[in-house]
């Protein structure tokens, strides 16, 4: 017993300290322990009502209304919902509700009916004030997009106050409109008519949020504490000169695909699911706390197989490695959880805590795939898995080309045919277009941009294979694969289809300039084959860069305006953001950039943690790439190029909101981590000349020492 305690003393101390710190932090954050600064989660009540916008009597439901008149009323509703969040209207609503105006907060859902968001002059001030104050009285105005009705949701400490606040939104807005009409001498008879549809009645919230906050805080703080303490133990061992325990690589069962091991085969099946199934549009028809998408039903079986593999003996068990990529992924996961618990009380106060609670499991699924790949795949299996990824990518690209040419999405069609009726598969319109008139060619993904990201993560494997091949047959096959992937990207009509391959070529040129120059003739072949496979797509994509109004189209101007639109949120939550998954894009504003999403949800620290994942994948691969190891250097190079393309995609859309791209990136990052794990290889010189053997000289008599001098 004493020897056991002495041998495992660092582990036991780490666990004990982590548990104690986690329990104390959980009790303090949830207000369950009588600690300094700890406050109980305040009680809350909610109420709702509805405001119908009309132009005259009788009500719109009792008279004939032209379509354009109805649309005008709907736009009036969207406009008035924004007006309700301004300071003058909030003051009048507060007086009607008999509460102090400085304790009232308001928000409005931004709809696509208004081309430009209503700018509140005091938005920045109120956002900065929110950093110190949690408003006990809040209401949200949500204008419907199909009817002239504003839905009002009010929150207050008691049911009576919540009901008064909801009812006061109608009378307060009417007071403001009457005052403005009198001030500007506007005819009162031409004002919009506000009809309240039912009196609001408040009800208390039976919340389990204190327990949820406590559990989430314990998991986060205990996990972060354990990680930091173990890092300190590892550093102390290294400084003391204690070598890490090296375990021989498991060799039982053979290497995939010539193996009897279950884990790599299940991993291969799940990766095929990512490439071919529109799983984010497939849901089990059962009510559950989280969305039961297809991937979240299949991945737990892969996790179980991974856990069972540890029990199969050392010869079959996954190998635990640790690289800089592991550190980057772990830090990102920790910061995501930390951003939620630091804002948990504010999110609960605004009734938004359920948003990150539903999104955190999805993040755990993403990281789980990385862990399973980085531990379950052997170093000798990285090349077969990379080649397998290329085959899946080429097949997916071929399906996208078929969708482009024949307007048939085979991915959705086959999924609907293969799955039982208990699964619901969303239908897609092959003729659907976006605001610029471009067809939505999406493949198995949710949006075309996600399809481009998926194919760009497989594209480096084809180029690296082409550079490394010595036989013409292999070069021809890799070149054809590269052409099909690029044709699939351009078939989506997205500008990222040009930006992603360019970023990959730049990365390969940085590490393999001379080898890449040999592929220059491929450029002409690429243009011909892409034009043949996706006729017209190449020219249409390039014209989006060269047209005279290229900088003024909504896809560009909206992205530019996003930077100014998020300033209030960023300034009020600068360090850790609002919390992972807490930003309701369709309620506020759709941010076409993962960079901005991370900045809003996780702050500056979270943005740096997110960028650290792909950047670390590139930096940690350099020594293997420069060593030019025949087995691992090509795989590390392909992973680094894919990481660069992922960074480019992150600037173009909210990539982590679309699971196909996030899963495949972390899977490729896991393969890259396996390829670079192990002892650091020696880097060869830039120019390495093989020494020529010299002819043996005939033996000569020994020369006197003085003569040699």
Automatic annotation (TrEMBL):
InterPro entries: O-antigen_ligase-rel_domated, WaaL-like
Residue spans crossing the bilayer: 211-235, 256-277, 297-317, 324-347, 359-378, 385-406, 447-467, 474-491, 497-512, 519-538, 602-621, 633-652, 658-678
GO cellular component, one term: membrane
Region (Disordered): 682-709
Pfam families found in the cross-reference section: Wzy_C
Keyword terms: Ligase, Membrane, Transmembrane, Transmembrane helix
Entry keyword annotation includes Cell division: no
Location of the O-antigen ligase-related domain: 481-611
Topology term for the membrane: Multi-pass membrane protein
Localization terms from the record: Membrane
Comp. bias regions, Low complexity: 690-709
GO molecular function: ligase activity
Taxonomy, superkingdom: Bacteria
Protein name (database record): O-antigen ligase
Species, as recorded: Solirubrobacter pauli
């Amino acid at each position: 017993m004493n020897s056991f305690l002495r041998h495992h003393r660092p582990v036991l101390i780490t666990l004990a300290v982590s548990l104690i710190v986690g329990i104390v932090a959980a009790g303090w954050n949830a207000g369950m322990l009588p600690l300094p600064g700890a406050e109980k989660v305040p009680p809350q009540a909610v109420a709702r009502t509805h405001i119908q916008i009309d132009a005259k009597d009788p009500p719109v439901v009792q008279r004939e209304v032209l379509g354009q008149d109805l649309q005008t009323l709907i736009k009036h509703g969207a406009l008035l919902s924004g007006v309700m969040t301004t300071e003058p209207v909030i003051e009048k609503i507060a007086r009607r509700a008999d509460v102090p105006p400085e304790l009232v907060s308001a928000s409005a859902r931004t709809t696509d009916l208004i081309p430009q968001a209503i700018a509140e002059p005091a938005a920045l001030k109120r956002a900065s004030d929110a950093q110190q104050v949690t408003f006990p009285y809040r209401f949200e105005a949500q204008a419907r997009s199909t009817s002239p009705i504003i839905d009002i949701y009010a929150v207050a400490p008691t049911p009576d106050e919540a009901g008064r606040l909801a009812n006061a939104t109608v009378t307060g807005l009417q007071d403001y409109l009457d005052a403005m009409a009198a001030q500007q001498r506007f005819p009162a008879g031409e004002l919009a008519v506000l009809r309240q549809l039912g009196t609001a009645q408040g009800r208390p919230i039976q919340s389990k949020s204190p327990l949820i906050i406590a559990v989430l805080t314990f998991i986060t703080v205990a996990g972060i504490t354990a990680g930091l303490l173990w890092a300190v133990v590892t550093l102390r061992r290294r400084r003391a000169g204690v070598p890490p325990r090296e375990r021989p690589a498991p060799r039982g069962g053979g290497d995939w695909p010539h193996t009897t091991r279950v884990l790599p085969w299940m991993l291969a099946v799940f990766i095929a699911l990512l490439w071919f199934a529109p799983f984010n549009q497939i849901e089990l028809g059962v009510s559950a706390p989280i969305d039961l998408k297809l991937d979240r039903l299949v991945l737990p079986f892969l996790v179980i197989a991974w856990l069972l593999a540890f029990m199969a003996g050392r010869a079959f068990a996954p190998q635990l490695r640790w690289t800089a990529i592991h550190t980057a992924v772990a830090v990102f996961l920790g910061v995501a959880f930390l951003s939620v618990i630091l804002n948990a009380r504010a999110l609960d106060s605004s009734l938004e805590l359920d948003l990150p609670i539903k999104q955190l499991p999805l993040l755990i699924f993403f990281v789980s795939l990385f862990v399973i790949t980085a531990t379950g795949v052997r170093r000798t299996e990285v090349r077969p898995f990379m080649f397998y990824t290329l085959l899946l990518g080429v097949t997916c690209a071929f399906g996208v080309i078929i969708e482009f040419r024949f307007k048939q999405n085979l991915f959705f069609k086959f999924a609907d045919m293969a799955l039982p009726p208990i699964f619901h598969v969303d239908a897609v319109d092959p003729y659907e277009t976006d605001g610029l008139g471009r067809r939505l060619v999406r493949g198995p993904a949710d949006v075309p941009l996600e399809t481009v990201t998926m194919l760009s993560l497989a594209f480096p494997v084809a180029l690296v294979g082409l550079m490394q091949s010595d036989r013409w047959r292999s070069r021809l096959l890799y070149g054809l694969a590269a052409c099909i992937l690029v044709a699939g990207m351009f078939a989506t009509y997205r500008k990222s289809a040009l930006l992603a391959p360019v970023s990959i070529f730049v990365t390969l040129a940085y590490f393999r300039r001379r080898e890449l120059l040999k592929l220059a003739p491929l450029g002409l072949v690429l243009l011909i084959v892409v034009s043949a496979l996706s006729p017209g797509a190449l020219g249409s994509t390039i014209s989006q860069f060269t047209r005279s109004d290229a900088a003024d189209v909504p896809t560009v101007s909206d992205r530019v305006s996003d930077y100014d639109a998020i300033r209030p949120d960023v300034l009020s939550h600068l360090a850790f953001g609002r919390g992972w998954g807490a930003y309701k894009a369709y309620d506020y504003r759709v941010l076409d950039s993962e960079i901005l999403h991370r900045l809003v949800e996780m702050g500056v620290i979270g943005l740096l943690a997110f960028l650290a994942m792909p950047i670390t994948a590139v930096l940690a691969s350099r020594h293997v790439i420069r060593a030019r190891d025949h087995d691992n250097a090509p795989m590390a190079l392909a992973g680094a190029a894919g990481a660069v393309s992922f960074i480019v995609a992150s600037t173009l859309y909210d990539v982590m909101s679309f699971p196909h791209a996030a899963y495949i990136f972390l899977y490729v990052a896991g393969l890259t981590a396996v390829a670079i794990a192990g002892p650091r290889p020696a880097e060869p010189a830039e120019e390495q000349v093989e020494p020529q053997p010299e002819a043996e000289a005939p033996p000569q008599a020994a020369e006197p020492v003085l003569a040699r001098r």
